[in-house]
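All the exercises in this workshop are built on plain-text protein records. Instead of coordinates, the fold is spelled out as a row of discrete tokens. Once this layout is familiar, the rest of the handout is easier to follow. The record below serves as our worked example for the rest of this section.
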Amino acid sequence: MTRNATFALVLACTASTVQATTFVVETTKAQQTIQHFGASDAWSMQNIGLWPEEDEQLKIADWLFSLETNDEGQPRGIGLSLWRFNLGAGSSEQGDSSYINKGTRTECLLRPDGTWDWTRQAGQRRFLQLARERGVPHMLAFLNSPPVQFTQNHLATNTGRGGTLNLRDDCYDSFAQFMAQAIKGIEQHDGVDIDYLCPVNEPDGHWNWLGPKQEGSPATNRETARLARATAQALQQQGLSTQVMVNESSDLRCLLGVYQTTWERGNTIRTLFSEDSAATYLGQTPHVPRLILGHSYWTNTPVDYMKKIRQELRDTCRKYGIGFWQSEICIMQNDEEIGGGGGYDFTMKTGLYVARIIHHDLCYANAESWSWWRACGGNYKDGLIRVFDRQHRSRDSRLLWCLGQYSRFVRPGAVRHEVTASRPEDPYGLMLSAYHNQDGSWVVVAINYSNEPQPLSLLLGGSNATTTWHPYRTSDDAGETLKPLPATNGQTTLKAHSITTFVTKKL
């Protein structure tokens, strides 16, 4: 026997002696309802949507939105169910005087003279249409700044002017009317309905929008509440059903307390949803659902802290009777386990790291919606897809397909169910979560973070009845991007460094 053959035999024997971990999907223990999985168009789609290479645009749209499969039954895309549209503030029209980096400037549909220009944001609006054509059921519009004509400093960036909203006091209604009319206009011009609207973004951010960098503005909780009420009224006047979402917090710690900011921008859940907070209470405001939106930046290390703060967030939301949406995240400097955000990574290294965050957001924070930051990006770990703007080309990543292990199979309205295991969950090993789709299918997403194959036994409910599962796997191996595998009865082995989604209904 050759040396290689002996080594292979040893590996096989070792794998066969590892005791399988038994996972039971608790079919009677329902948790939160999953609304959607999403990503945003900022800031790439304003360029990609204008590329002359239509085939490249359609390829990107298919990767992000498609629910179709190829002849081998392999999904063509990750089937996002929420698309976040960045409604611009007008820094592009200001050029270099905007104090904002060129790549992060945005156009505004409303001119300073009060007239509308529906040739603007054309690239972004094209992707709104491409998303709708591919069946994306929900759209969200978010703003980083009010239009520059309404701001106190006539800019879309704070430039260190303090921790209050960069909006003139006499322009709350004008800003609200702009948002409502823009949404109405997008419906009329593009045939796309906007389901959700976020008037402020990261209002409690400790980085404070000093500029020059990107559009943005802080806001106190009182300002957020005032703007939410004005926006709700403007939407009602336009006859729109769009819901006003608050408050896209920059850090989960700001939702729960005061973190690197002032008291006016902290304790957001209690301030906006406690009846005792009369001046800021939004719990009974029309068009404002009992939901809080936050970003999972900066809270993913150490791993035990990631779990702890999400459990605290879950318990706080339960106390005030609200839901939670994780509405934005990418890789930052403190994500040291994968080398921080610098330098794009096409491999499972980033994909698995993000999948672990998704697992914790869904299973411990009870997130009802989960969104990545940028759909497309450059040489930084902030894009699902790496784009090369000068060449007008793009390349997919394992990060894209790892998100797809959730978004493609866990569809809007699915209910998460508890999973019990014969061993404690290992954030560096096996992590499983289970979902029941509205079409009756069951879905289990199984992450193997470890460097070794992991045998498991997957049971649906407490009975020993055989269930046929159809697996789809993403790994670093060629072609393994939501690749369909042979059906299994639940007795299987997970490949090292992979994610496998098991579905009871074959695509």
